[in-house]
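Lecture notes, unit on protein representations.

Consider one protein chain, 311 amino acids long.
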Amino acid sequence: MKKLVSICVLAVALAACQQTGGAGAPAKEAAAPMPTTGAMKPYVAPRGPDGVHPDLNGVWQVMNVANYNIEAHPAQSAMQLRPGPYVPVPAASVVALGAVGAVPAGIGIVQGDGKIPYTADAEKIRDENRADWINRDPEIKCYLPGVPRANYMQLPFQIFQSDSAFFIAYEYAGAVRNVFLKDPGEAPIDSWMGQSFGHWDGDTFVVEVTGLNDSTWFDRAGNFHSDQIKVTERWTPTSDLTMRYEATIEDPATFTKPWKIAFNLYKHVGEDAQLQQFKCVEFVEELMYGHLRKNPLPGPALEKSKELGKE
């Protein structure tokens, strides 16, 4: 019994020593304060060929789904829907695509309240476009995508920057943009990719795009514009492998006020830093001209040929 009591007293004494440091034990040092750091220094990109401005050369691509719809949207079963028994279901023209034709959810790239400020009349046209997407979306026919849509399609693009030139090549449909570095004046004619004029604002490359025709869309959701559109892009490097893209859209014929989109671009490295070829015009020959064959193939081409024959 005495042995047990002695053990208990020893244990209590040891515990007290651990808490107080014990007699003669050095006082416990106060914890050293955590080092404080100042504000993070802003990123400074490597200089480009002219030795003055950032180097934007490289292959770039988005990691978003804005090409489906630049506004925030939930996942849905198809781009084009029709009323179903309980909820909308894929339209007959796209039902065979199944999950391949479904739309992934997206957080949107429209800034502010996330909504495109359409006029009342323009919003009705947007809704008509959306309801007849399979026949109206210019991407389906491999028409050039226009600006800004070319920059957030699912395929990459490459920037070629020298001390005296700036050129962008897109994998989709072989689209290209030669960015003038001296003001060329008014575009002589409207075109699919418009006319681009660029200048530097510090480390941001600003490009004014005018002379766009009214045939391009912003996405697959029917969002559109008129030929009065002006796009002002801002390309700002944010790290060695990322770049912030912003664009202000002005079009008084379609929108009640200017509005803005913004998203991140990511640079390809290694063997991925190259463009492949996706010149899709030949891929839509059957869609566009199949009905003109001497003997149209069974399917939509044959049906269209018959309809034309009745006229």
